[in-house]
Amino acid sequence: MLTSVFIAAVSLALFWMAAFTLWWQMHAWRTPEVLASTRFGRPDGGEHLSFSLLLPARHEQAVLDHTIQRLLESTHTDFEIIVIVGHDDPETTEVAERAAARDGRVRVVVDTHEKKNKPKAMNTALPHCRGDVVGVFDAEDQVHPELLAHVDHAFRTTRADVVQGGVQLINFHSSWYSLRNCLEYFFWFRSRLHLHAQKGFIPLGGNTVFVRTDVLREADGWDPDCLAEDCDLGVRLSSVGKKVVVAYDSDMVTREETPGSLMSLLKQRTRWNQGFLQVYRKKDWRQLPGFGQRLLARYTLMTPFMQAFSGVIIPLNAAVALFLDVPVGVAFLTFLPLVTAVVTFVFEVVGLHDFGVQYGLRVRFAHYVKLIVGGPFYQVLLAGAAIRAVWREQRGRNDWELTSHVGAHLTAAESLREDLPA
Amino acid sequence: MTSTLPAVTAATVPAQRQAAPTTCSTGRTQPPVRLRSSRPDLLLCGALLTAILVVQGWNIADYPTLSDDEGTYLAQAWAVQQGRGLAHYTYWYDHPPLGWIQIALAGWIPSALSPGSMTVGTMRITMLLVGGVSAVLVYVLGRRLSLPRWAAGLGMALFGLSPLAVVLSREIFLDNIAVMWLLLAFCLAASPSRHLWHHFGAGLAAAAGVLTKETMLVVLPALFVTMWRHSHRDTRKFALTGAVTACVLIGFSYPLFALLKGELLPGAGHVSLWDGITYQMSRPGSGFILDQGSGSYGVLHSWLYYDRVLPLGGLAGALLLLLTWRWSVTARALAGPALTVAVLAVVALRPNGYLPAMYVIGALPFLALVLAGGAASVAHAVVRRWRAESENRYLTGSRYALAAVLALAAGGYVVPHWYDGDRTAVTADANKPYRQASHWLSTKVADPKDTRVLVDDALWLDLVHAGYRPGLGAIWFYKADLDPAVTKTLPHGYRDLDYVVASPTVRRDAKDLPNVRAAIRHSTPVATFGSGPDRIEIRRIQAAGGAR
Description:
The complex is a heterodimer. Helices cover 56% and strands 9% of the residues of chain A. In chain A, helix 3 (61-72) links the parallel strand 1 and strand 2. Chain A is of the alpha/beta class. The longest helix of chain B is centred in the last third of the chain and has 35 residues, at 393-427. In chain B, strands 2-1-3-5-4 form a five-stranded mixed sheet. The radius of gyration of chain B is 26 Å and the shape is globular. In chain B, helix 3 crosses helix 22 (457-465), helix 8 (163-170) runs parallel beside helix 20 and helix 11 runs antiparallel to helix 18. By secondary structure, chain B is mainly α. Chain B is built from 26 helices and five strands.
């Protein structure tokens, strides 16, 4: 009897968790109107804002120049590029200085912090920003030339304080986990973030994010001690009622690459999870006015851990139902989370198809198979990263040592993989 | 589930690429976005609902004659209520159990208040609930399929007031419940907001319908077409795969249930889902429906006896709509119902299929909608087609005159027929013999607890409430021959029984059931109620007591 009640309770909890996650994940496709509203409005031609684009670069001499060149091709007429390099990184500095000499819109700021990380680098550059809006990119990003014009338009028409553009991992064919990783980004930026923007609580992304300079200065820039400074900034800004707008257009997204190895993916994920935990513990989200908003904040920041938990429990639960002697009704309940898992899988398959259509990429049958078969293993990876994050946070290891490669999280060797998309 | 919808689509960001299914070439068929807040719709629908509930509910217990199937489902619902499992005899996967689980839920409160109310006549009241919901759903579906208000109302009235529908929807048939779910699925599929989770819900509702009565399976393609037409290009693949997934997953719960009970595949000493399906698929056919003298022909005529307008008119309307698909806006809007009717008609036309009397229930609401749609189409053709702005006043007047004449002619043909049929339904008492038999068995038998009676399903619960032991005291008559668990308690055949209640059903089926036949042959009537072929005889078995 006790077993039955326990199993039923766990099953129902899992079911609701999975159902809510699914509900939010599918936000953009609820109705055609919602889907239409997730896109950028068409620019009206007027350009009134000036941009300061921050480009932190660390040991990224191989890709930096290309990124700067591409940013300079932007159709917008009023922007500056501030490349932030470390004082201990002469190779990257040289590339940056050369670009600055070529074009007056490029400036170089040197970060002299002993221990380096991305938020510190960006805070160093913040006083140098002359634009009305600060934008953040990573050194290996491929930015669309018309993005700034669209963002300008979005700021003016929506009176937003923050505009988050789409970021999309593209190299889905590289490996089984990159397939899932790409799809995660797809669902997150295509769909889920819009829900957060609408609800007034949003963990921002790490790049293609634009903040009004005065708002950013008022908020004292980024938190140098937080491992997920991007998430933290979003939470702090939305908690004090700043308006965040998210827009996703498949031709306008910033294209990125998945981490080069499983281990680096695990480390990246550990850092994010730990960052989410830190943001949760900083309690800025408690200033949110609505109970529902606070609940959403709580849930979102805890998601990695629930994900880990459910990934382990769902199969276990189903096994219990099949092999232990429980009443048929209870056994039925144990299948509920599995049902949501299957629905999620199906929507992921459709999402992969849509991803292929949106980006003109050929998704083969094998990829769908990989997506399904890889699902449980990816879940294990996520669970591992979540457990690792909790463990590190418990031990007080919130330094940047482990993830010092982030901020320059793709070394030259990794960035130059042959599978780089065109 | 959809409470957040208004917030999502609120004025903030208008759709940049508008809307797919352009079913409305003229303004005339534009349905309101929210029926709930449209006063004329509420008034019309409310008035019709009241009329339908009165006609369907009045005299519900006494007409039509209690059917054996009603007794079966209600008895199984009673078993569910009592916590005896899915049936009081071994559940053998004859139908998915969701139908009578719902009856059990609907009858829970009345039967808790008064256990004796769990009899077929009384519990028909739950079907009134189902019929009311279905009628409202027909109206909503009509509006969502772009019918003008009057035509949606006409569809609802046709569905709720046709004597055929009145008779069938009063009876405790699984089809009535299943069709309610299917209507809900259609309504959700045609949701004006084209919401992903509405389509998902349509899949769930469709699965519930199929699990209530498995024959609804054949309607699913028509549902799919409806959903396709009512989804938007940009979100369609998510909506449709979501709906199909939902339907399949819920549908799989039935085999899963069998698997969990270890009864999925046939094996020694237990029933199985496989055997149940095999039985249903290999049921002896009742002949070709148009072959005079076949059983199916008889069934068809029993429908047409009550009403010709809805089945024949609806069928003709469906064919017309399917043929004029290319030219008629209404035909495309009503593609789902028309296709449903067509599919059901094709299935009924199998050369030697099994055609039960309740088969038509699944088609009734769709026949009504198609007929209403046809009327709307005709009305539009008469009143508006080729009408110029500067049309001659007299010509316009004669258009309306023609429309009025057509309406009067149709009314003049239908109303008298239906009036007669519905009058019978609200006044006739077809179940007096049953009530008398029930009364006799409850009062005249000294020791019900130790008395064993073969009885048909419709009377069975009456006996249980009167104190007979369910299962082995009050025995479904055919179980005496077909259920090993019962036969083994009858080592001496009919001699171990006390009474057999020879109702028309029992007499009809006895020829294939040796024990029942013997019981009738070796018994004499002690009480007879009614006369002719419909009489009910309570027959006392001669050897009773002696050989036990």
